[in-house]
C-alpha cells in the first residue's frame, strides 16, 4: 500500500486534485520518499511535545528544566551527551558531513564539577551535612526555651528552602514519621537526632549507617586516637 493511500490524507487530497486537472493517475511514493516523509512527520511530532525520556538520575525543577542542585554532575553530563539532547543536536548540525566514523572518546571524565562551578546534588549534600552536624556540635548543652523554639523554626524553614526540592520534600516526610520530630532539648539529643536524619538518607542511598553513639567524636571533639589533634 502506498503511503499516499490512507496515512496522509492531505497528500491523498493533493493527488486527487492533480489527477482531475492533469488526467494523470496518482502514483504511490517510492520507498525512499516514504521513509523521508515518515522521518519528517516524526520530527514534527517530537516538536509538538513528544520528549525523549530523561537519563537516569536527572531531576526536573519546578520550571520544567533539569535541576542542577537536585542532580549529580555525572547525570547532567550524561544528559548533555545523549544524542537527543539539544546540545548534541546543535553540534551535529554544525559539523560538516563526513564518511569517516568518529571513534568514541576514551578520556576519563570527572564525576564532580570543578570547584569554581555551581554545586551538584552531591556537593550540596556533603556541604550541608557538614554545616548541620557542626551546628549540633556547637549547640548549647542546656539551651533556653527560646533557643529551642528558634532551632525548631530554623529546621522547619530549612526543610522548605533547601535548594534540592526533592531532598527537601523527603526530609519533611521523614520528620512527619513517628519519633522523627526534631529533638532539641540539649546538645547530645540534638546531635543524635541529626545523625539519625543523616542515616535515613544514607540507607536510601545504599550507604552504611553511622554509629550515632560516636557523633561527638566525629563532629565535635575529634577521634580518640588523636588524628584530629592540631
UniProtKB/TrEMBL annotation:
<dbReference type="GO" id="GO:0005758">
    <property type="term" value="C:mitochondrial intermembrane space"/>
</dbReference>
<dbReference type="InterPro" id="IPR039799">
    <property type="entry name" value="ALR/ERV"/>
</dbReference>
<keyword id="KW-0496">Mitochondrion</keyword>
<dbReference type="Pfam" id="PF04777">
    <property type="entry name" value="Evr1_Alr"/>
</dbReference>
<dbReference type="GO" id="GO:0006879">
    <property type="term" value="P:intracellular iron ion homeostasis"/>
</dbReference>
<keyword id="KW-0560">Oxidoreductase</keyword>
<keyword id="KW-0285">Flavoprotein</keyword>
<feature type="domain" description="ERV/ALR sulfhydryl oxidase">
    <location>
        <begin position="117"/>
        <end position="219"/>
    </location>
</feature>
<dbReference type="InterPro" id="IPR017905">
    <property type="entry name" value="ERV/ALR_sulphydryl_oxidase"/>
</dbReference>
<dbReference type="GO" id="GO:0050660">
    <property type="term" value="F:flavin adenine dinucleotide binding"/>
</dbReference>
<dbReference type="InterPro" id="IPR036774">
    <property type="entry name" value="ERV/ALR_sulphydryl_oxid_sf"/>
</dbReference>
<keyword id="KW-0274">FAD</keyword>
<feature type="region of interest" description="Disordered">
    <location>
        <begin position="77"/>
        <end position="124"/>
    </location>
</feature>
<dbReference type="GO" id="GO:0034599">
    <property type="term" value="P:cellular response to oxidative stress"/>
</dbReference>
<dbReference type="GO" id="GO:0160203">
    <property type="term" value="P:mitochondrial disulfide relay system"/>
</dbReference>
<feature type="region of interest" description="Disordered">
    <location>
        <begin position="35"/>
        <end position="63"/>
    </location>
</feature>
<protein>
    <recommendedName>
        <fullName>Sulfhydryl oxidase</fullName>
        <ecNumber>1.8.3.2</ecNumber>
    </recommendedName>
</protein>
<feature type="compositionally biased region" description="Low complexity">
    <location>
        <begin position="77"/>
        <end position="110"/>
    </location>
</feature>
<dbReference type="GO" id="GO:0016971">
    <property type="term" value="F:flavin-dependent sulfhydryl oxidase activity"/>
</dbReference>
<keyword id="KW-1015">Disulfide bond</keyword>
<feature type="compositionally biased region" description="Basic and acidic residues">
    <location>
        <begin position="35"/>
        <end position="49"/>
    </location>
</feature>
Amino acid at each position: 500500500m502506498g503511503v499516499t493511500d490512507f496515512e496522509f490524507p492531505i497528500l491523498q487530497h493533493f493527488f486527487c486534485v492533480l489527477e482531475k486537472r492533469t488526467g494523470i493517475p496518482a502514483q504511490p511514493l517510492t520507498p525512499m520518499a516514504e521513509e523521508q516523509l515518515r522521518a519528517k512527520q516524526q520530527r514534527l511530532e517530537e516538536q509538538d511535545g513528544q520528549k525523549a525520556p530523561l537519563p537516569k538520575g536527572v531531576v526536573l525543577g519546578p520550571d520544567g528544566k533539569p535541576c542542577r542542585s537536585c542532580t549529580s554532575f555525572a547525570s547532567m553530563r550524561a544528559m548533555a551527551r545523549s544524542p537527543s539532547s539539544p546540545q548534541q543536536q546543535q553540534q551535529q548540525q554544525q559539523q560538516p558531513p563526513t564518511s569517516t566514523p568518529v571513534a568514541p572518546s576514551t578520556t576519563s571524565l570527572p564525576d564532580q564539577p570543578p570547584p569554581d562551578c555551581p554545586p551538584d546534588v552531591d556537593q550540596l549534600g556533603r556541604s550541608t551535612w557538614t554545616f548541620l552536624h557542626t551546628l549540633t556540635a556547637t549547640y548549647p548543652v542546656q539551651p533556653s526555651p527560646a533557643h529551642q523554639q528558634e532551632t525548631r523554626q530554623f529546621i522547619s524553614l530549612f526543610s522548605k528552602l533547601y535548594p534540592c526540592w526533592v531532598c527537601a520534600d523527603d526530609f519533611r516526610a521523614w520528620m512527619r514519621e513517628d519519633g522523627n520530630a526534631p529533638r532539641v532539648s540539649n546538645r547530645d539529643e540534638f546531635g543524635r537526632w541529626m545523625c539519625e536524619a543523616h542515616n535515613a538518607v544514607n540507607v536510601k542511598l545504599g550507604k552504611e549507617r553511622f554509629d550515632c553513639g560516636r557523633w561527638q567524636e566525629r563532629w565535635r571533639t575529634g577521634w580518640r586516637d588523636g588524628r584530629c589533634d592540631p
